[in-house]
Amino acid sequence: MNLRSLVLTVLATAIFSAAEAVSIGHDKVQPFPQPEPVTISEKAAVKHKPSLQIVDGCHPYPAVNAAGETSAGLQGSGKPDGKCKGSGLGSQVHNWVNAIVWLDNPSLEKPKILAVSTSSLKGGYDIIKNAPRRCGRYCDPEFAEYINSSSPMLSYVSYYPEGVSLHTLRMTTTRGIGELQDLIMWEQLSEPARLALSKTDFGEKAKVPFIDVNLNASLEAARPFL
């Protein structure tokens, strides 16, 4: 199985400059609909895709369409949540915020979630494992509290230290608020879309985490076990 099928990217991106692909308005990019899962791995990925709660900041926008046209993103000024409450076409416009769901064996009919890694403000990933909870002055939530049925629950939060807008993704125990996004496997994208994601310069701090040149580094940074 391609390890890329474990990467569940829940937010697309924003402020960038197009290098080789044609860029269009962030609200003009037609997203890929989620295909009916056929293989065992596809079914496992769809079953365990995260839900997403937007606390503040931009809602998800697609980064590329079937023709390989990429989103030009939002301008780097104005309110961080202004005019970006979600695309009328479906499926962010600020960064490649992403999550990785680790399964024991995606080929099983009922795989077990071993851990969830979410990209963090500091760079790298925050990792929550399916393990006995830690207790000090306070106890961490049980891992099951982060899961709704079979979906990890994620929350997208913005921080504004010294007037700078920063965004992060974290797991949450709050139920009934998050929404499920369409999940598209790398192999299900069109060839122009894959090429555009691989070739477009989205900016130094907005590198696509799941293209060939970045995938292994992303998985290593997010790895929950040695």
Automatic annotation (TrEMBL):
This is Unnamed protein product. Pfam families: NPP1. GO terms for cellular component: extracellular region. InterPro entries: NPP1 (IPR008701). It is found in: Secreted. Its main location: secreted. Belongs to the Necrosis inducing protein (NPP1) family. It comes from the Eukaryota. Residues 1-21 form the signal peptide. Keywords: Secreted, Signal, Virulence.
